[in-house]
Amino acid sequence: MGIEQILAAIPWETIIIQTVNGIVTGMILALIASGLTLIFGIMDVVNFAHGELFMLGAYIGVVVMATSGNFWLALIIATLVVALLGAALQITTLRPLLGRDPLTTILATFGISLVLQNYALWQFGPVARKIQEPFTGYFTLFYLEYPWYRLLIAALSAAIIGAFWLFLKYGKYGIWIRATTQDRVMAQAMGIPVPWVHTGAFAIGAGMAAASGVLFGPLVAAMPAMGVDWILKAFIVVVVGGMGSLGGSIAASIFISLLEAYASIWVSPAQAGIVSFVVLILTLLFRPTGLFVPTPK
Amino acid sequence: MNPDATPMQPLIAVEDVHTYYGKSHILHGVSLHVERGEVVGLLGRNGVGKSTTLKTIMGLVRPSRGKVLFAGNPISGLPAHKLARLGIGYVPEDRRIFRLLTVMENLRTGLDRHGVTEARKQELLDKAFAYFPVLAERRNQAGGTLSGGEQQMLAIARAMMLEPKIILLDEPTEGLMPRMVSQIRQIIDVLQREGVAILLVEQNVPLTLEASERIYIMEKGVVRHHAASSDLQVNDAVIHQYLGV
Amino acid sequence: MSKRSATVYWTGFSIILALLIVAPLVLPEFWRRFVTEILIWGLLAMSSDILIGYTGMVSFGHSAFFGLGMYGAAAALLMVRPPNLWLAIVYGLIGSAAVGLFVAYFSTRLRDIYFAITTLIFSQIFYVIIFTWTEVTGGENGLSFRRPPLAVPGLFSVPFSPETLHWFVLAVVTASYLILRRITQSPFGMVLQSIRENEARTRAIGYAVERYKIVAVMLSALFAGLAGVLYALQNRFAAPDFVYFLVSGETVIFNVMGGIGTLVGPIVGAGFFLLLREAFSRFFTEYYLIPVGVIFIAMVIFLPQGLLGFMRRWLNQ
Predict the structure, then answer these.
(1) Confidence (pTM)
(2) By CB count within 10 A, which of A285, B44, B183, C317 is most buried?
(3) What count of other Cβ atoms lies within 10 Å of the Cβ of residue A44?
């Protein structure tokens, strides 16, 4: 086959569409994974309930939309409410476990995830609820009418992550968080109230998860079990990106989402999900510290 | 708590403190005190519990028995961040500066406190840079890129940002070149002039004898000897006995 | 174990065993099945205890071992005529052992949280494979099959009655318990516990920690697979739901509630959980996990040693 024939056989348009899709999904995943990485990096807690915080964000978004019709209000309220919930959860269930075997926090957050999932099931029922997009409107991307909204999601996620990064780098509390992440003991010795930094970080992580939920809501309907798939992907992203590395998680999120988007050109979406598992296994075999983290010397 | 209320009380008083690490009984009843503005030395071989004593005072480790008092008020059991705000500065072994934070950010961890005006913060910063000009040069560099001596200076400057009444100094000259050792000596003088008390843990006996007003010598988790430094000399029998020098 | 302790222990053991033997004869059908289920889940939890309680490796991968045991048995019962009980067990064990090898390999290269998360993800990998490979595994609907007779080839063959099935399960679980107990009290078991206490020190003393971990994982996988076979026998179907990581999560809950490192604790934990589920289902219908979940969290915080944790030292003599 000549070059022209090979090039013609590649479905360029579909690939570009899938690239855009992959980036959109990747940004949402990055937002979820960032929260998870923040929490793990600062207090060594693997937050099993993170997917449920995402799910609750989506549901609160549904409720606020239903009463007020304002998408942006939904985004803000959902983020704040879940952030507060996160703070409350951290204070009641995670603070008592400080200093104990890390297994206990995995178990505690697993318990929380069960409770939250069933609570949502109880309150909202198993039927999916949709959030209305803040605006409809399509532009034509090749043969497809591509919704503007999807690009908005990617942009907003990027904006939130960017704002978070700026906060970490320049804010007073950002320095507290970074210092506590690096050396909890010395941070305390410098007068930083570490227990509250932990609570704050957990709340921020929770808020970010909730924001993803609201942003993602119009794409996929809100369901009690929606957190589960995302939490597994988020875990994979965090491990592949290098546990505790924010930049790594973001890079890994986009990388894996793109791969899956391309894979679903040829196989069903459920099977495309295996891509992330394969990437994880390969990473663990060959670069266990993380694909996007420089190999430690 | 009013640290200035009772001028007759020592600034720091450690009374019969026992501390464990897990099952290991490290401190077997340590008692010592530091007055305002004093420089007190704590000598002893490796592993006798000098660092643990400092950590206990700093609230990083809880004593199982005994009391630690700050200006007459009991502080054992309080979390370290409260003690830092009360006025206890801590410069640990290995310095432990925040390697990924810049020099400025390291200093800011001590500066960003309640009730400190921007003007005051700038004053404190200017003072730190005046005493440690090398830090001014490197202010935007990551802490991890500094040399050992520079990190030591950063660790001390950082503690000074807390405007402490006492600084707990754990082996500041360890691993430093002689030129830097004398610089540390000068810094101790500066701190004393500022009215900051110092509890100095060291292996370097001559330096400690010279810089301190009083000396405690520890062995196996207790204080075995206590004297004014003017009564001790480097080749005293006591020094030989407990430090094997 | 001192003579007196031993007598107390074996007396207790015999009493409980006697009660369990008599159970199907006196209990109504529902509760009979309930007890049998406790035994099966208990076996699964026990297998998980080898890793969590004795070697100190938290694994969320047991749903994969359990599920492969179940599907392995299904394969034997569907593909080989006439359906053979022992073949089902063998196939099931092979299935779970295969997964076990896979997990065992990674167990030597990852520690703690990484290992836990990775086993979790592995469970999900198998779940997705089983769920989507409809031609082979029946996909979402699973596989159903007939229960084989209790047969010794050449001697006799008699179909299972509810009572005999219960006794068979009881026999298998009891034998498994005794075997595992023997193993955990052997020098091998001591090394496992030493790895749990301080892996670095154990390695420094000279033990090939990796080999011990691999054996521990394989053991755990085999007995978990056995539980899967028993479950298939009892319920006559295999479904992907049981490979979902939630099963692993529940297994860990049984362990924690009952007390890790006790072998018998996890069985008690399974029973406790299932009883709570029964009780709360009356009031909360299918949302029983809300109160049960809260109880679990409270136990993790306030009673981390579990219900039988206080007996741990005694049980392990």
Answers:
(1) 0.87
(2) B44
(3) 15
